[in-house]
Design goal:
By secondary structure, the chain is of the alpha+beta class. It has helices at about 5-20, 65-80, 90-100, 115-125, 145-150, 195-205, 220-235, 250, and strands at about 25, 30-35, 40, 55-60, 85-90, 105, 130, 140-145, 185-190, 215, 240-245, 255.
Length: about 260
């Protein structure tokens, strides 16, 4: 078995034990010699000729369920198999290239529907290995607090948009979701900068005829995204935002997904 295939089999074995693997990157053998030394050094993905085990690199695309999955994988790989683990913070394009290049070996949770063309291509080429879903059910889209539609008597909030069901109706409610920095326009809280879905959402706004009615607020981190949404919710304010499930925020707060065509 080649080093390339042996590495794929090694990581696949780890993730099969976990039963939570999402995708595994095949790595190239990478044993090199330091210019100042005659001893070989082992980099991540090498065969460990010097006796050192190769480091397994996990992708951190910056959301909460992925952090949990990475922590579980890291614990089992390090404590159960004795292999060192490094977790790299990445954007979507960086992760895609790094997995193909073998610089990142495992993506524990990949929303490949957001980059389906790339996903199908690298699977067909054998550049990554799909080990199956990590959730029984997952969804993503544009959400509003339930109190926007139904009100919340306990908090003294009256319904603000009782007929709101679909993103196609958002043009009628741009004054409700008003952008404080530009009167006459609404504001949508998007995914964070660097996520592929954030670019997709901008395209969706154009497709739904909302680009002239809404500005896009794009937080710089998942923490900033959560803070913007949770802050508006705690104040009982109207807010429309991109989010996904399962996620702690959607479990802690009562949000409703808007229908999309």
């Amino acid at each position: 078995m080649s080093a390339h295939r042996r590495w794929k089999a090694l990581v696949a074995a780890f993730l099969a034990v976990l039963l939570v693997g999402a995708a595994c990157g095949a790595d190239q053998p990478a044993e090199t010699t330091d210019p100042g030394s005659s001893e070989p050094s082992t980099t991540p993905g090498g065969d460990g000729a010097s006796g050192e085990k190769p480091t397994i690199v996990l992708a951190d695309a910056q959301w909460q369920t992925l952090w949990i999955l990475n922590a579980i994988a890291q614990f089992i790989i390090e404590e159960g198999y004795g292999y060192p683990v490094r977790i790299e913070t990445v954007t979507t394009p960086v992760q895609q290239q790094a997995m193909v290049d073998g610089d990142i070996h495992v993506g524990m949770e990949m929303w490949y529907v957001n980059y389906l063309e790339w996903w199908n291509q690298v699977l067909a080429n054998g550049e990554i290995l799909d080990l199956g879903p990590v959730f029984e059910r997952s969804t993503q889209g544009f959400y509003v607090p339930r109190y926007v539609i139904e009100g919340d008597s306990e908090r003294g909030i009256e319904p603000m948009a009782p007929d709101l069901r679909s993103v196609e109706q958002l043009a009628d409610y741009k004054d409700l979701f008003a952008d404080p920095n530009e009167p006459g326009k609404g504001v949508l809280i998007n995914g964070i900068t660097g996520w592929e879905v954030s670019e997709i959402n901008k395209i969706k706004l154009h497709a739904y005829g909302l680009a002239d009615d809404y500005n896009v607020l794009e937080p710089g981190s998942s923490a900033a995204l959560d803070a913007a949404i949770a802050g508006a919710y705690e104040r009982g304010e109207p807010v429309v935002a991109y989010y996904w499930e399962p996620a702690w925020l959607m479990g802690a707060l009562d949000f409703v997904p808007l229908e999309e065509p």
